[in-house]
Backbone:
């Protein structure tokens, strides 16, 4: 577990926002949902306890009715499209990518069309027409073709750039993906969050996206999520928003 003193820089930054009478817009995205699991239950419990809306990036091909039934009564959850199979098609010496041009463009777009239709049918009003590319990577050549499929926005990682479709990005990743996997030290993640808040304070209006992966969380990662919600859910300077607020 992390020392709560690690969170003081966030408290100080939020006090600056409060003193200025301002609110920072945050949203929460969790990736790789397929089926009901104890880890998903734990995430949903935290969302309900602290009244924080959650955007689940669901992998369409392997998912089914079981997850939709589990989520049907979860008013804080929205369903978004996480590629099709979350399969890597990039050569071994390059960064992983499902939505690249390693296959015919028509094949990739057909899968994205099927993913959209499947999740829209399963989730109805819980569905948000947002594409979350696996590994946060999608070839730019595909972007102009997404709106005709029904997509209204894409979510990758980092400050949004000009694109032919809306970008609702994440900026904070709580996980360590190289070496020994698990949650990053709280102080490191808080440092990144404070940096993003300072960018917004200086005039950048993009909502801050926090990205998690419930299936691979260790105790440090779970403790971060719970502490983040404790520190921010009722704070005068923070507004947790459903991702649909930014897509429509």
Residues:
């Amino acid at each position: 577990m992390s020392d709560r003193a690690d969170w003081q820089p966030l408290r100080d930054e939020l006090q600056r926002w409060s003193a200025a009478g301002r609110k920072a817009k945050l949203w929460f995205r969790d990736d790789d949902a397929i089926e009901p699991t104890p880890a998903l239950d734990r995430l949903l419990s935290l969302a309900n306890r602290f009244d924080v809306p959650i955007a689940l990036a669901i992998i369409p091909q392997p998912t089914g009715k079981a997850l939709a039934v589990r989520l049907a009564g979860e008013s804080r959850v929205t369903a978004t499209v996480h590629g099709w199979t979350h399969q890597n098609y990039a050569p071994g010496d390059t960064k992983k990518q499902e939505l690249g041009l390693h296959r015919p463009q028509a094949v990739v777009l057909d899968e994205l069309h099927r993913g959209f239709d499947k999740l829209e049918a399963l989730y109805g009003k819980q569905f948000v027409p947002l594409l979350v590319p696996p590994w946060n990577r999608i070839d730019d050549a595909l972007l102009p073709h997404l709106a005709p499929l029904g997509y209204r926005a894409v979510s990758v990682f980092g400050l949004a750039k000009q694109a032919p479709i809306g970008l609702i990005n994440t900026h904070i990743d709580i996980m360590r993906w190289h070496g020994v996997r698990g949650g990053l030290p709280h102080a490191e993640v808080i440092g990144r969050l404070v940096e993003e808040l300072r960018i917004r304070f200086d005039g950048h209006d993009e909502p801050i996206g926090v990205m998690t992966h419930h299936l691979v969380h260790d105790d440090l990662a779970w403790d971060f999520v719970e502490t983040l919600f404790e520190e921010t859910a009722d704070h005068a300077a923070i507004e947790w928003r459903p991702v649909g607020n930014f897509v429509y």
DSSP finds seven helices and eleven strands in the chain. The mean pLDDT is 96.
